[in-house]
Input
Amino acid sequence: MTFKDLGIIKPILKAIQEEGYTNPTPIQEQSIPILLDRKDLLGCAQTGTGKTAAFTIPILQHLFNSKNDYKGKRKIRSLIVTPTRELAIQISENVTSYGKYTDIKNVVIFGGVKQRAQTDALRRGADILVATPGRLLDLISQGYISLRDVKYFVLDEADQMLDMGFIHDIKKIIAKLPAKRQSLFFSATMPSAIIDLSGKILGRPEKVAIKPKQATAEKVEQGIYFVSKPNKTNLLTHLLEGNPDSSVLVFSRTKHGADKIVRKLNKAKIQSAAIHGNKSQGARQRALGDFKKGKLNVLIATDIAARGIDVEELSLVINYDLPNIPETYVHRIGRTGRAKASGVALSFCNAEEKVYLKDIQKLINQEIPVISEHPFIDDGIEDAPIPKTTNNQRKKVQRRSDTKPKNGSKKTGDQKNRKPFSKRRRY
Ligand code: AMP
Output
């Protein structure tokens, strides 16, 4: 199967060829015909599967084919809503690349930065708007954006939208969309709350599911290190010293933890930077930019900040802390081994985290090989009993640690409308 077989038009074919895509990925092969047929789509897929191209290519094609529909200033005919700034920027960059031989314009808006550059861009006109929910509602209420002409609507990473407390924003956005439209809904997981939400957005959708299991089992080499908490930084330093030229993404469960790792690595003369919700947008983009360009080899990230990180040649992912929600592990290791490349994901596990390891192995239906050849091996951990905690307790810890705004910190546009944790519904 080729992109040409899928009926993609020449200007887009040329652009994706230049991107180096020879064949469609499974999600593209399944979704593109449905979307070109103008049907609604419910897609269960995570980033790393080629999901962005699966939805942006058909939208570009529809817009290209109907380009004479508008006269005068461009109208927003497609809206793509995604939870994080990084993801929004990433999608916008992809739309620009795939659409470079069309005259279709996109604009990206997100919170946490001044709005002027964004409103100037909107004034110049756009066919596609990529947005995070808070800033989108903000600019709608100020009169800079109208959704009246939207014909193609995409809600991306729906499960993360719920986790971040965006559900009310999403409902407000849906209420402003024209009833006659094509809607696309993507989520990495499909709990009942997500199915409910999709029912409010989609007509009678076609369904496409790309199981995360494929991403982990087939493409990423995985390993687990049993190591005590105090020795984790020593082990990390040891591994980074052994891979001095690789791009390494290190996951920390908390923002505070991420900063601490950076400080400790600095002491060991290993240059790194952290990205998380407490960093300014400028600092996050700088660190991410340096990492993508290869100027910075080690990036420490929390889960939410890392969504949307798309780095070619990302050879190694290290889970400094094991995530307490097993799906998060799949998201994390999906950062390496993107599309066709293969990658390595290594995880540190201390005694308390063994319970998370058990859940992860159950989800991916794989036993992750234990690496025992390292100087900080702690035999006691492998044999230690698994602590007893309930799933709900674990989820509670996860959400508190990564999404709660810092006390007293200034809220960004996207954070303003969120409910405090205690008032949010848990799913
Ligand atoms: P996504 O799931 O959209 O985040 O895409 C993951 C990565 O796969 C990105 O780096 C894309 O550039 C790349 N990609 C998407 N489609 C293809 C394809 N058909 N062939 C090769 N790489 C692709």
Observations:
- Residues 51-65 form the longest helix (15 residues).
- The pocket of adenosine monophosphate is lined by residues 21, 24-25, 28, 47-53, 310, 338-340 (CB under 6 Å).
- The first strand starts at residue 41 and ends at 44.
